[in-house]
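Task: sequence design from structure.
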């Protein structure tokens, strides 16, 4: 059976959540200038695209070679996101130092590009979709659907600066707390799913 564009698109939209990640993006990049934040949005989406492309091509082989299971990948991603969440919940805006010119690259790649955008869910879905592809046409449909989702993610992050200007410094600090709480919940869910998966294999 041919791969459906709609199924791939819907699945990846739900996992990557283009607009739901905007508050987290604003929180993590709140100390950057608007120009640096725009570059961070591009680098984050580019990082996610590269990670997804790599796992689409050799994901099964890489995990098999390293003897790393999907639950282990979920657990590691959950722990990394939990550290970011705790920083958002405990830091104050006054504690943030002005960003260096290259800071947006590091922030964009980790944790924004991965594991927030290209996290375990997106990676596993990509591996499964490409594993089920039986022709070049199927692979093209999958790539196109993921590409459209990545464009939507980029647009959501790129124009987050408008929301930043509207909310102001105090509003962004409030958003940071809420985003930290949501991110902590996401990370705990990932860790719990990982633990349960390990328990089922014992």
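Answer:
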């Amino acid at each position: 059976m041919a791969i459906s564009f709609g199924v791939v698109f819907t699945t990846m939209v739900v996992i990557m959540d283009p607009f739901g990640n905007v508050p987290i993006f604003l929180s993590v990049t709140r100390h950057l200038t608007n120009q640096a934040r725009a570059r961070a949005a591009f680098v984050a989406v580019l990082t996610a695209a590269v990670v997804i492309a790599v796992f689409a091509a050799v994901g099964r082989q890489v995990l098999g070679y390293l003897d790393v299971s999907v639950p282990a990948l979920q657990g590691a991603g959950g722990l990394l996101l939990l550290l970011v969440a705790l920083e958002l919940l405990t830091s104050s805006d006054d504690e943030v130092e002005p960003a260096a010119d290259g800071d947006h690259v590091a922030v964009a790649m980790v944790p924004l590009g991965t594991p927030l955008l290209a996290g375990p869910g997106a990676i596993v879905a990509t591996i499964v979709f490409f594993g089920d592809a039986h022709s070049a046409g199927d692979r093209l449909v999958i790539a196109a659907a993921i590409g459209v989702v990545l464009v939507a993610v980029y647009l959501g992050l790129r124009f987050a600066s408008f929301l930043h200007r509207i909310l102001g410094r105090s509003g962004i600090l409030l958003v940071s707390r809420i985003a930290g709480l949501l991110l902590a919940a996401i990370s705990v869910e990932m860790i719990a799913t990982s633990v349960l998966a390990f328990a089922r294999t014992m």
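The radius of gyration is 17 Å.
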